[in-house]
Amino acid sequence: MIIKSLAIREWQYILRNKRLFLIMCVMPTVYILLFGYMYIDHTVNNISTVVLDYSNTGISRSIIQSFDDSDRFDVKGYVHSEEEIREAMGKREYVAALILPGDLEQNLKKGTSSEVLVVVNGSNMLFSNSVMSSANEIISTISAGISTKMVGSKQGISAEAAMGESLPLSFRTKIWYNPTFNYTNFLLLGLMATAIQQMVFLYVAVSFCREKELNLFGSLLKEYKPYQLVAGKIAAYLLINLLSANLVLSVCIFIYKIPFRGSLLALELLYATFIIAISGLGIFLSLICKSELEATQLSMLVAVPSFLFSGFTWPSSSMHGIAKILNIILPLTYLVNDVRNIALLGIGLKDMYGSILVLMGMAAVFLPVSTWLIKKQAKNNSENKTGLI
Q1: Which pTM was predicted?
Q2: DSSP characters over 261-324
Q3: Final residue belonging to a domain, choices 176, 191, 209
Q4: Considering the domain boundaries, does residue 127 fall inside one?
Q5: Which of 354, 192, 370 is nearest to 273 (CA)?
Q6: Distances from the Cα of 76 to the Cα of 88, 113, 269, 388, angstroms
Q7: pLDDT in tens, 106-161
Q8: Which of 176, 199, 231 is where one domain is finished?
Q9: CA atoms within 13 A on the CB side of 5
């Protein structure tokens, strides 16, 4: 009976606390619906692809059209050399490249095998696996058709017998940036970025709540102006988290041997803008919450889906609807993929302007709003004290 009464008491508390009830009973269902919706296509589609066609013949154009007709590939342009492919892929303009040899048609007419080269950015293993399996399917289908036609017409045998002959067209893949398919290179850098967000967000989100619960908020408002409070919090968390981020990066590079090909200055600037943006969001949550527990709960509601919807585990290009909206508005989106691309692709500052500007825009929204909230709360405190007098 004692256990029953305690259980009933706890149930009554949960039912009275609407936020706690929502978090415990509704949010897991919401999360699974969102996560399932993100993976609803089951495959990575619309992979941006560039073509290098040395052959420029009817058969090469037919192969290119087959790739473009596939749901998996989206042929977006043509180049004239492998150097152009590497440059464009390094700038993240394309994920895959299709290279057709100059002697393609001549070899097929002579009855000898010809090879198509497919290059893929291996920094994201989801793209790599999808490109390889889809390219194999397309090339095998085309090759079977060519074999059936050529062998059947030359030898006068049936199509079924012709299918038994060796396939004249094959493909070879070349993996750039992560040629050994090292899963550590793919996973660890993203986990590093996520860990940075968790530490910044969790502690900043309770910073002002802590001051309120310790009855220090009023004295702080007497000594400092609102913008000084916000700037002081940002400066403190920026410094300590930059140090933490670089320690984690050092572990990835020197202990786990993850290659680092990009600009350290670009990475530091990206770290700094991200920490400022996420700190601004954390301060905002801290100001609108009444307690540390409430701030922690809200921060976790944001942090939990960030890892998946940031585009780290599932490409942004394959997201739709609400999944795409979440991908755009979550700050982690603009850190996690760029960290991996700086390290593995070697991208520089000029390739990251978009992410940095978005993060600066987020900070430009949350920091002024947080300053305004502090002013409003200071005014309310002043009016309450005046009313008591």
Answers
A1: 0.79
A2: -S-HHHHHHHHHHHHHHHHHHHHHHHHH-SSHHHHHHHHHHHHHHHHHHTTSSS-GGG--HHHH
A3: 176
A4: yes
A5: 354
A6: 12, 28, 31, 69
A7: 887 777 778 899 999 888 887 888 888 888 889 888 887 776 665 555 555 554 44
A8: 176
A9: 2
